[in-house]
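@channel sequence for tomorrow's demo:
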Amino acid sequence: MDSARDFTFGELLALAMEDADFAAGRITAAEFFRRWIRPGVNGEPCLPMAAERDGQMGLDVYLYRYEDFEAHQKLEAEVEAFSKSFSDDDYDTMKKARAEKFGNQVDEWGGVIVGKEQITINSKVHPDHLFKIGYLRSSYNDGGVNRILRSTLGKDLYYIFQPEERYQFKPDWGTCLKRALEVRDEFARHIEANGAFRIITVWANPLLDGTELPASDAAALKTFLEVRARNPPPAKEHPLWGGDFSSREGEFFLSPAALRVRALIPGISTVIGARPCTYVVYEDDEHFAWYRQALEINVEMCEWVLGQPDVNKLVLHWSA
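structure tokens (generated this afternoon):
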């Protein structure tokens, strides 16, 4: 689950590496920032809120039932080969020819849509949860399930389902259930033994000139007061104002709910080279309950699949 707090600057750099278009050079830095930066309530540049980001960047896992998975893959390969037989300059011609050749077997983007059914069923235990029987989600920011599991257990959804380099595959569901139970129980024991703690990584903005960074307690306080003055709470509820955000100056927590910081630990971050940083350890009971529920639904999904008479027709789609 995404927290209401926005990305840290370090996470913005991580996002730059995760954005496939930017990483491949298909969009410029300016286009990357236009894609992700949004105006705050008072015009201050900020990253979009968690709910807005959700679905744009992250891991999405879907469950499908296929009539004949192998035949479906063969048709997908045929459609792909046909599409690639045209030059990039003939895209419109290709789309028309593809529609004529394959008809209602494909959508307008060339995806094969026949012979499969997406499974999405609300959990019996947590019916209002984002996780479903048939849908799992982990965003790339510090609130993503995988990020939380890796920091607490060193395991994640990849460990449970072992996708390797596959994007559509039939897992060993019995083994997946064992691992899902293992991760669920280990996470619960970790929280009970250690408490619900999360980490924010804070470092100096490398895009700022050194003279722009505060060099004293007084300068830091001045920066904080200036940022706070630019971001007062709106007179009425506003969808873009959460109170907690990142900006070029740092991380700010202006919402009424105080961040329960328990430690500030100097260290080294390895995101885009090694550089000094501060790891902020804070308590987050509310969201950790959500993660526990997500892991319970994951177990519920594996049990549901194993209870189906056509389990061999059920396929995971791994979209990262």
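heads up for whoever presents: Residues 173 and 219 are 57 Å apart (CA to CA).
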